Amino acid sequence: MVKVGLRRCRTILSPSRIGGVDYAVNPYIGCEHGCVYCYARFMSRLGHKGEEWGSFVDVKVNAPQRLRAEARGRKPGRVLLSSVTDPYQPLERRFKLTRSLLRILLEYGYPIVVQTKSTLVLRDIDLLTRFEECEVGFTITTIDERVRRVFEPRSSPVPQRIKALGELHDVGLSTYAFIGPLLPHLSERGLPELLDALSDRVDLIIFDRLNIRYGNLQPILRALRVNYPKLVDSFLEALSPTSGYYRWIKSWAVELCRERGLPYDFCY
Fold it and tell me: How far apart are CA 25 and CA 35, in angstroms?
């Protein structure tokens, strides 16, 4: 069970250092998806120290009021929903907080970028298609559903995400797939097939490596030891500074994308 809290935020339209966006809007603290590798677990420090990532979510109940106050006083810039939570995690069905924030951003003319692992984003197509500038992307770590269930236990199944990208693309929205984090010796399984499935559904493929920070290594190792014990040593070796793993997979991903005529970018 996820512990749900209600809290008031002091600000919601936060300046962002993420490339390509000016602001980040995070409607929730914590995330029900509970992804094993997630380094946003540092958000646990905000009243949840020592609690397991994925076991709590705080709802920023006054976020619409704060956004309206902040949006009208700032220069419009690209807004990312979201950087340290998923704006369409399961609780969004109940609270509709992201939908309320989209209405306000639309009213004040802010371009938006949405990144999620949930097909719930399809609920808001009516709003997303009204933005002058809107990009919608799905994080997809692997096409292997067994790997997805281990590392992203409460996210939408990958086939559903791929289908949703097609639906979003078909209504004229700019779409992308964020393939990351690339999990050593796991994410490359089925990568050509994943790119084949995405080839007519996205305008851009973005790749990122696994970043070890804020205590995510131990949960990853626990998941590996239970589900892929033979990979533990090679997984750790791939993360070492002297390893050529990420150079190799980058080169291979470039080759695969070029073969399919897919635009691509890397975060590393």
Answer: 20
